[in-house]
Structures are given as structure tokens and as C-alpha cells.
Amino acid sequence: MNEAVRVPAARVSLSTASAYPESCAATFEMASRLGYDGIEIMVWTDPVSQDPAALQRLSEHHDLPIVAIHAPTLLVTQRVWGADPWPKLDRACEVAAAVGAGTVVVHPPFRWQRDYARGFEAGIRDLEGRTGLLLAVENMFPWRARNREIQAYLPGWDPVGFDYDHVTLDLSHTATAGSDALAMAEALGDRLVHLHLADGLGSAKDEHLVPGRGSQPCAEVLERLAARGWGGNVVVEVSTRRVRDRIDRETDFAEALAFARLNLAASAGAGT
Prior knowledge:
Number of strands: 10
Number of helices: 9
Distance between the termini: 17 Å
Radius of gyration: 18 Å
Structural class: alpha/beta
Mean pLDDT: 94
Order of helices and strands: EHEHEHEHHEEEEHHEHEH
């Protein structure tokens, strides 16, 4: 007897980081044409990524909601909106509220940001309470150099044991860290609200491969989330900076979207 297919609650969105070095505007155009459900904005040097009015115009023009704002807390965005991390998070929350995004993605502090790290857990909780937004702290990984591991993040790169109400699970970062992605997803439970869908082969480099091209259990993670009726955001965050042209970039985006749709389509009896 054939089982009915259940349409998953989770939306599949595209991160503007995936289109680098192309612009936010180009990402909206490609996502709309390919059939994505929304957009995550990586705040960086592209002026549009920092301008809520411009982002809102793009969202309305392409009829694509902005589901998340990724705060400029990467190593390469340390000077975007100044060097002080808390005002950067405040501003990211302001942009999220202005464009109707319910989630702000945040990296944990670097080791040299000791004052920021000391109050990070409590500060994230306070900011969520003040804004009503989900601040989803992302899993990271130890840095490796000459066969040595460097613990680059405080209070740590693995969010499971810390006091965060909401977490982003990045499947390229689990590859780089050598983490068990399925175990992490299970351990996080309802705290997992945001998924960066990518892949990796476990090298020291954060690869952000198209899902299915690496060693991570991308399909299994999506299937398990769908089976439990998970309603968070699935965001394709892959690296296409080395592709030859726009055609190859869109091909990668289409493949990633098809992978997500297929593996989110859980059968009616899944998980029971």
C-alpha cells in the first residue's frame, strides 16, 4: 500500500553567502527563479546587506521573505558595523525586526574577545528577551594548524553543553570539527531552530560543499527533522566562489534545493 507524502513544515531558503562574490540582489534573483522559499542575509561589506530598506524592497520585488539575518561575527566581518560585538548584535536585531526576519544567526566569540565571551550566554538570553527574536548560536569547530588543534572560540565551539535556548546547526562545520551531526541534532532537541545545509569531507578547511558531495549525513538529518514535524529554517549555505560562471552557480543552487526538497518529504508514517 502506498503511503501519502507529507509536505514538510520547514522552508528551504538560500543564504546570500552562497552567491559570493555576487551581490544580495543577485542572490534574490537566483533564489526566486529557482523556487526557493526565502533568503538568509549574511551581513558583510555589500552595502545592501546592511540596509533594511533596500533588503525590504528586494524581498517585496521577488516575493521572497527574509527568514534570518546572519550577524557580522565572522573573522572576515570583524570591522563591519564597528569592532564592539554587542552593538553589532543589537544592530543585526534591528535589521531583522525591520525586514520581518524572526532569527538572527550568531557565531560564538573568539578567544581574544574575553569580555564578550564572559557574558555571552547571559547576554544572548537578555537580547532575545528584549527583542522577541531567536538568536541562534551556531556550532563551529577547532582550528587546525600543523597537526595541532587550536580552541579558537569561547565559551566553546560546540553549543550542545551551553545555555543557549536556540541553536543553528551547520553541517559543514560538523565535518570540519569531526562531530557526529546526527547525535548533535538529537542532543539539541527543540533548541535546534535553524539548519545550515551544506556538506564537507572532514578536512581542516570549512568547505561548504553542495549537500551530497561530502561525508556528512545531510539526508539523514533532513529526514529525521521532517519525521518529527520540525518547523525551523533550512538554509542552503554552500560555497560557489570557485565556479566558472553564473550557470554553474545556479546549477549548484538547484541541486542543493532538490536535495533538500527530496529529503524533507517524509512519508506519513515516518518516525512512528
